[in-house]
Amino acid sequence: MTTFPAANNGRASAWQARGAAFWLGLAASPTFAVMAWIAANDAPPIALCSSGMLPIDGMTAMYLLMSLFHLSPWLKLAGRTRQRT
């Protein structure tokens, strides 16, 4: 374990918090997508948008929307890697 001088403790914990926030931001969208998939598989026979193959009830729609809303960290990451090349 690396120790930091007392003056740098505030900066080190800020970098650690940014790192944790980055990974949590990346984890949100796939987590909601998996939850939408699970909710779609457990959908009741009468769903909101049932077209036979894609039963979408209220919870599935909510998880899909949450997954879309949390895509921005992935898009930022893709933009950064595209700029480097």
Q: Residue share in helices?
A: 55-70%
Uncertain segments? none
Summing up helix and strand content along with how strands pair, one would put the structural category as: mainly alpha
The major β-sheet equals: none
**What is the mean pLDDT?**
76
Order of helices and strands: HHH
Give the percentage of residues in beta strands.
under 5%
User: How far is the first residue's CA from the last residue's CA?
Assistant: 34 Å
SS element count, helices: 3
- Number of separate strands: 0
Envelope shape: elongated
Computed over alpha carbons, the radius of gyration is: 19 Å
Structure write-up:
The chain is mainly α. It has a domain at 26-84. Helices cover 68% and strands 0% of the residues. Helix 1 (9-41) packs antiparallel against helix 2. The protein is elongated and about 50 Å long. The two termini are 34 Å apart.
